[in-house]
Amino acid sequence: xxxxxxxxxxxxxxxxxxxxxxxxxxxxxxxxxxxxxxxxxxxxxxxxxxxxxxxxxxxxxxxxxxxxxxxxxxxxxxxxxxxxxxxxxxxxxxxxxxxxxxxxxxxxxxxxxxx
Amino acid sequence: xxxxxxxxxxxxxxxxxxxxxxxxxxxxxxxxxxxxxxxxxxxxxxxxxxxxxxxxxxxxxxxxxxxxxxxxxxxxxxxxxxxxxxxxxxxxxxxxxxxxxxxxxxxxxxxxxxxxxxxxxxxxxxxxxxxxxxxxxxxxxxxxxxxxxxxxxxxxxxxxxxxxxxxxxxxxxxxxxxxxxxxxxx
Amino acid sequence: xxxxxxxxxxxxxxxxxxxxxxxxxxxxxxxxxxxxxxxxxxxxxxxxxxxxxxxxxxxxxxxxxxxxxxxxxxxxxxxxxxxxxxxxxxxxxxxxxxxxxxxxxxxxxxxxxxxxxxxxxxxxxxxxxxxxxxxxxxxxxxxxxxxxxxxxxxxxxxxxxxxxxxxx
Lengths: 115, 186, 168
What we know:
The complex is a heterotrimer.
Chain A: H1 2-19, H2 23-43, H3 61-67, H4 71-102, H5 107-112
Chain B: H1 2-22, H2 26-46, H3 50-71, H4 85-105, H5 124-136, H6 141-149, H7 151-171
Helix pairs in contact in B: 1-2, 2-3, 5-6, 6-7
Chain C: H1 12-34, H2 43-61, H3 63-69, H4 72-97, H5 104-108, H6 122-146, E1 147-152, E2 155-160
Antiparallel strand pairs in C: 1-2
Helix pairs in contact in C: 1-2, 2-3, 2-6, 4-6
């Protein structure tokens, strides 16, 4: 059920990308889609009664292995979040160039104006 | 208990995302996306991923600053009207079909609380948890995974970040032609 | 273009608080990078925090002040240096161990656990990634802060609002 709610969030982002006219709303739709995917990956690694996978000098190895959450999705999502920031900066740069060329953020105008 | 909390935060996030996409003022929509990101950071903390929570919080703050700085200074804050009616209806119908399929498929995944590493005792995650400290010496198993066991993926990620920032800087390059002609540069 | 140094940036309260806090924020970012193998954090989160120190300076004092602290040339050199250092550590794994990206310091000289200088090559990688991410995001923000779209000769153009320096 929780995973289905993550999918609903992803579909809201998809709605933002495909059905909106303002380019900033399209960028926000992509950001929401990326948040939904990262959340789904981390939620799939939780275990009941779980602890973070960080040891200190007093942890017993057996209880640690039997109670820690999955560290693999966390490692993959960590890089994905920072890459999302890089892609966002690229999208904003393209939006600024489009504003300079066409004078508006409206993508239906951009198909019709010339030069 | 944690399921109920995560579920209520997810409902909050869905409402926030809808507000972000439907409101007419651009500043309000950017701030709503910021609220969605903050709720996500709390969810990560509840589920036992503290370094993902730190990273998500600071990355979301910086992305809010970039979005506001680059788009709100323009004098165009509201665009009203809709796209053409037939395309909009077709897209909404397809999204509704995906939604119905999702509600059919997603309850068949393993339940929330039983990760895939419990399916067998030979899975890589169990190996990393058991031998992480001995082989790498790092107490933070997530850091041991991204920098020792799966270091090649981190190298690829550094390359992707480098390239995307390079692309953004190349797009926004402005050549100035005045006041440098006497230097003879460029 | 009038002399805007006194009115650039934000109000006096924001400037005073920033002057007190910028050292602590930078120190916190460096702490998260260095202790990445012992507590939550790592190179990516620490690098973003270091970049947001300079973003705070730019927002409070104006871009001339923060470009005086860390110029664009130095930032781009730090960025490339971080990426090269990371690659150098990876290639050193081949030289000393035969495997790409081997943790060769841990294999040659294993150290005590839970100390700052343990875990072999992992703190070096964290420092390299922290430098790289911090410098990249600072450069992106500075470019976005100096870019304006103005009407020049009847057409819209993208111009930079930096002051011209006669000699770099």
